[in-house]
Amino acid sequence: MKFTNIVLIDDDEEDHQIFLAALEHISTTVHYHLFTDGRKALQDLRLGNINPEVIFLDLNMPLMSGQEFLSQIKKEKELSQIPIIIFTTSADNSIRELTLKMGAHDFLTKPSDFKDLISLLQTLIQ
Question: Does domain 5-122 have CATH number 3.40.220.10?
Fold first, then answer.
């Protein structure tokens, strides 16, 4: 599946900039929304302010962790079908298995190299 309407939820502004730069390198037609707080993203999703085809979700965030966000969105009938891709620095297999059992669509470890990020996103975007 190729996604063109994306949400990234990650509390790290630098990660937003890198992700956005990679998206813009791949396509100028991708629509995206960036959130630093899972609570705000969940609120906008519930209100219908955004309607993404996929959500990239960091796990390690204050206020609402990625696992908490995943748990909440999977309880929402109207939102539970949005694919959630865990996008984190963690490579812990037990966390990977847990989030997949919780309903995550995929689990990707953030690449440390920009070119690797572009390659990874190209497989998912347009």
Answer: no
